[in-house]
Structure formats: structure tokens, C-alpha cells
Amino acid sequence: MHLRTLLPGLSNHHVVAGFIQAAKPGIIHGRLVDYGPYPALLRDEAAGRSGSVVRGLWIAVNRQGLRNMDQLEQFLGIEEDNDYDRIWVTDIAQPEQSGWVYVWDSPRGCPPIDESYWPDYYARKQKGT
Which of 2, 29, 48, 116 is most buried, with most CB under 10 Å away? Predict the structure, then answer.
């Protein structure tokens, strides 16, 4: 599930564009925090208590696409010192749909985003509203 700058039309879509085999909208449990030019997804206790959800895009990519995403997200592997961890999650509305997402384990002092969709929030942020 991609929630951030890998979405079509956003700054890092080129990282996966040539490797996408399929794509469809999705929704997962979690919350976003604002790290500045991009958000971070949290699936922490606060997200669980609030019942918050995040909308994004499930994309199927080949192995090179996954390697490119891992490099962008600074995911070096399981048990490594990663910026983001990669975890397997299931879509809320489509239980047959599951896949990898990149998450932080804490907000790291970043402010919460009280919206479920990063592109909408980011567009408003850019306009200063």
C-alpha cells in the first residue's frame, strides 16, 4: 500500500512507475504524521485507540520495483537499522487484499495529520490553508 510520495503525480512516483503491474485503491488502519515533504505511517497505540485509517494505493510491482522502494524508504532488511520498517498489512474493506507498507515505530516529534489521505493534506499545506 502506498500512501505518500510514490502515488501517481507525486514526487517519487518515478521510482516505481516502470515496475507497476497492477494498482487499486485501498484503506488500512493507521495514522499519518507530517515529516515535512512527506508523511510517515504509524500503526501505534494512538492509531488503535482512535480507530484512524489511511487511504492509499495498492500497487503490485516486480522484484526490482520492491528493491527501488526499499532503497527510497531506507529499508535495509529485517532486524537492520532502518528509517522505515516494512510490515505486512490487510486492507480494511477488502480482506483479500494485503501487502507491504513502510512504517515508523513512533512519531519522532512530528505533528499528527488529522486526515486519511496524504495528497489532499499536502495540497492544502502547499497552499497554506
Answer: 2
Q: What is the pLDDT of residues 52-96, one digit of tens each?
A: 999 999 999 999 999 999 999 999 998 899 999 999 999 999 999
Determine, yes or no, domain membership for 72. Answer: yes
Render pLDDT for 95-120 as a digit per residue (tens, 0 to 9): 999 999 999 999 999 999 999 999 99
Q: How far apart are CA 31 and CA 94, in angstroms?
A: 19
The verdict on residue 78 lying in a domain is yes
Q: Is the pTM of this model over 0.85?
A: yes
Contacts for 17 with CB less than 8 Å, ≥ 6 apart? none
Given a contact cutoff of 8 angstroms between Cβ atoms, the answer to whether 103 and 42 are in contact is yes
Whether residue 129 is contained in a domain is answered as no
Grid cell at residue 124: 492544502
Question: Distances from the Cα of 56 to the Cαs of 8, 46, 47, 128, in angstroms?
Answer: 11, 20, 16, 23
With H, G, I as helix, E, B as strand and everything else as coil, classify residue 63.
Answer: helix
Residue 31 counted as domain residue:
yes
Q: Which domain holds residue 87?
A: 14-124
